[in-house]
Write a structure and sequence with these properties.
about 40% helix; alpha+beta; 3 helices; six-stranded mixed beta sheet; about 40% strand; Nuclear Transport Factor 2, Chain: A
């Protein structure tokens, strides 16, 4: 009986520690998503470098193309800084999915800015997914893919 009680207590302790670690990891990833949007808003390449894994293996798929490696990815931040003012990227409806030392996020975004060349305001919406990897105890983006909003608001034939 004592063995069973100790075993049960050990199992509950391990389960509680695992749940706490998952909650901490999810919170850390959500903070990185916030840092990701803040880096784009401010054009802060230093902050972006703390969000992304600084390697040739990262990638980004965007309407502007497919960037490979940190040097190309940071060019996306530079493009936004060079071409837009009053940038504000908002991530919403964020879902975090953990799988050991890997995770992925999916969310909808809204972007407001002004075009530097003419001052025209722009407003756009879309969807994004990002893959994160836990590296040296911290979560870093290794891949993103973003696109515009879904073209169809309700499923048509064949999707039911």
């Amino acid at each position: 009986m004592v063995f069973t009680s100790r075993t049960s207590l050990l199992c509950l302790t391990l389960l509680a520690a695992s749940c706490s670690r998952s909650a901490d990891d999810e919170r850390a990833i959500r903070e990185q998503v916030a840092n990701y949007t803040k880096a784009l808003d401010t054009g802060d390449l230093g902050l972006a470098a703390h969000v992304w894994w600084d390697t040739k293996d990262v990638s980004a798929i965007t309407p502007m193309g497919h960037s490979h490696g940190w040097d190309e990815v940071k060019g996306l931040y530079q493009f936004f800084a060079d071409n837009f003012t009053d940038r504000h990227l908002q991530a919403r409806d964020i879902a975090v999915h953990l799988m050991g030392d890997a995770a992925w996020v999916e969310y909808n975004w809204h972007f407001d800015a002004k075009i530097k060349a003419n001052g025209m305001e722009i407003h756009s919406d879309g969807r994004e997914s990002g893959v994160f990897r836990k590296i040296d105890g911290g979560w870093r983006i290794v891949h993103i893919h973003y696109s515009g909003p879904a073209a169809v608001t309700s499923p048509g034939p064949g999707f039911q």
